[in-house]
Amino acid sequence: MSPFVKSVALSSKRIFAACVRHYSSLTSELIDNMDKKATWDRFYAESSSRSPTFKNFEWFFGFSSVRDFIMPHLQTKRQPEALLQVLDLGCGTSALGACIYKHSPLPVCVSCADISPVAVRLMQEHVQTAAIQPHNLASQLRFVELDCTQLHEHCGSGSVDLIVDKGTTDALLRSKEGKGKANLVLKQCLRALHSSGALLQFSDEDPDARLLWLETEAREAGVMAANVAVQEVGELRGVCYYCYQVTPCPIVKK
């Protein structure tokens, strides 16, 4: 077994273990179908039925653990009057996107996107009920039903300043048809990013595996591999997590 396959398998087992702890009736479906809308519709429907009050479900960790990796990317606007465009890819019912909206001093438009309309509805209802307020009054927060493999239909080329992926790529890589989908999503993310933007992937996958994959796919997408980097987020419950950053830089053809 290659280091890439072995690392993905370990990461998937950890994601699966989290699902087992919270939603035991979905375990057999989740393990092989983490790229399917129906799987996540059931996942979030069950989560909402288990409690009379809404509770955010966080893959890996919450905003406080990764705040210092995200906020530096929201310090400068490329256009004085424009909102910084932020995409939380595969948001589920995480509070990550809402926290960016709440804490960004510069005006941002945070789009929280998920394949599951159930998750989108739950988050829309929660935000309205909780009356979440932004740090900057010009900021916007929205929740969008979106299959991340169809990102090109929703985001124009160079239109996004920051894309945050917390566990979404990990889920795709685990599913039966996931590697091809993960490749496609990465390429579409790089296309959607502004030249000064960044893609942040949070994962427990080993750098030896993830960096090679990112560099290879970035190169195929016409982005220089030198713009792929990794930082250690820290250890949580005995598992080490990483922040993988990819920044676009088109290759100049001679």
Provide a compact summary of the structure.
The protein is an alpha/beta fold and 254 residues long. It contains 9 helices and 7 strands. Strands 3-2-1-4-5-7-6 form a 7-stranded mixed β-sheet, with helices on both faces.
Description:
The chain is α/β, with parallel strands linked by helices and 254 residues long. It has one domain (3-246): Vaccinia Virus protein VP39 (Rossmann fold). The protein contains nine helices and seven strands, in the order H-H-H-H-E-H-E-H-E-E-H-H-E-H-E-E. The protein has helices at residues 3-22, 27-30, 37-49, 63-70, 96-103, 117-130, 168-174, 178-192, 207-220, and strands at 84-89, 108-114, 140-145, 160-166, 193-203, 228-236, 239-246. The chain has a seven-stranded mixed beta sheet with strand order 3-2-1-4-5-7-6, sandwiched between helices. Helix 8 crosses helix 9 (207-220). It starts with a helix and ends in an 8-residue tail after the last strand. Mean pLDDT is 85; it is low at 1-13 and 18-25. One of its GO terms (cellular component) is mitochondrion. Residues 84-200 form the Methyltransferase domain.
Task: Give short descriptive properties of this protein.
Citrate synthase-lysine N-methyltransferase CSKMT, mitochondrial, 254 residues, alpha/beta, 41% helix, methyltransferase, disordered N terminus, Rossmann fold, 9 helices, SAM-dependent_MTases_sf
